[in-house]
Amino acid sequence: MVRIAIVGGGAIGLLFANYLTKANHHVTIIVRRKEQEMEIKKHGISLTGQEEQMDVEVRQSNDFIEQEFDLIVVTVKQTAIKEVVLNINRGILRANAFLFVQNGMGHLTSIRQFKNKSIYIGVVEHGAKRISDNMVHHTGIGKVNVGLLKGNEHELQVLVKQLTSEKFPVNYAQNAEKIVKEKLVINAVINPLTALYRIKNGQLLHNEHFIAVMKKLFDEAMVVLNLENRADMWEEITRICRSTASNDSSMQVDLTVGRETEIEAISGYIIREAKEKNISVPFTTFVYESIKGMSAITERG
Amino acid sequence: MVRIAIVGGGAIGLLFANYLTKANHHVTIIVRRKEQEMEIKKHGISLTGQEEQMDVEVRQSNDFIEQEFDLIVVTVKQTAIKEVVLNINRGILRANAFLFVQNGMGHLTSIRQFKNKSIYIGVVEHGAKRISDNMVHHTGIGKVNVGLLKGNEHELQVLVKQLTSEKFPVNYAQNAEKIVKEKLVINAVINPLTALYRIKNGQLLHNEHFIAVMKKLFDEAMVVLNLENRADMWEEITRICRSTASNDSSMQVDLTVGRETEIEAISGYIIREAKEKNISVPFTTFVYESIKGMSAITERG
User: What ipTM describes this predicted complex?
Assistant: First the structure.
């Protein structure tokens, strides 16, 4: 049994909390809103289509948390990570090990600097959609790939074995940076385009014109991130479009409901890296400016 | 009195027919559909908000037309111009002079080859929206600039004076290619972006991100078309966005209702020119492929 705190009550946070509780770990979920805290306290966390509700300890993110965890899983979006990193640096969130599962790579520099901690980064391949404050729809079963950013490799391998279960497989990945880079490429191609065109993931493969734009974004990301497995990666991207064909990407949803998107962490990161390396990325720049502009029109408040 | 035939029963065709009839010219409008022919025959052509209906002769485009006109104004979109050019070449449409008012420049090569004809090209600055088969909403009063592609300069100047009226000013423009090039730049910036973002013309100036993309498209078009009056042209584009702020661009409307857009004549032309001149136009390529792709999803039939 691992004592786990999960920071973030979004779809991924609820998914982790549900499955890790099922696997008999002691799970505390840390959420931002009082209403969500109350809801989870009363009804536990459940998956749609399943009657079973998982009893999970729940805390508000500005509560004083006295205990130290074996593992803290940070599931908030990269747009909200600054505050979590601050709380870790201040010792308000204490654990032996941290697992970060954000899209993008912009946070890696700051989390690498944590003193005396084991830092893991993960790539979540699940599809998940939050239905309510305590219920999540598991739209696509995948796996969680976890790699070592800092710390002891063997310890991580042991942890991964403890966390994994049949319906929620957790894999050890040898090259942590490679897995987040690859996820970044996938996100840089699928997310901004589905948001811009207001289409579902599968529709990207609908015609040669969309595919032409995808390939341009793909090429730019691969060059900037210095990845070489072009054929495999392109195959992976089209596979994901097919396997999540009827899903709306998170960026498409965020843009539609007027929430802040992850465009900074995804295309913004590629543009900043490209600038440093003096590489031209016009297609990535196009989607970046377009999503920023459309957000400015649709964002609430 | 000039004997004028107007080819095309769209918004611009109806607008020309209405105002030129008001200015006491003898106008025949040539439309494609029988229903539109009947409608105009019965009720004439009118502007929204005005009771007066202009009696205009109307013919179907596959009728045999025995008479020769002083002037034929071709108002069909560039996507439909092939057939008109064919009918002119076959002598089915006969006139001393032709005025073409298409967006884009792709048709200039073929119309320049007409034998023994005066060929004029025009840029329409009016805003117009077809309400029904015989009614048009004049959404923005502008002017029609006409320049000489082939023929006698003085003859054109005389014609322009005959056509012009207070509410429908027609101007002589010294450099025909320059005015269509400038219109092309304006269309290449405003039309694809408003269609892609599904916004009104005025919203393009809503934030720095949209403006950044506009400027990139603007730069590419200016370089490819070899235009130098950068400051004036940019000022003109922003002026048009403001003066037509609440209008949907024709491309945005075409895309929404599932009609073929003019993307080939606008961005497609720039891309083909750029290729010949070995100039890179990634932003124009992005909007071109995007509009083509979105059309393939929304097009009817």
Answer: 0.88
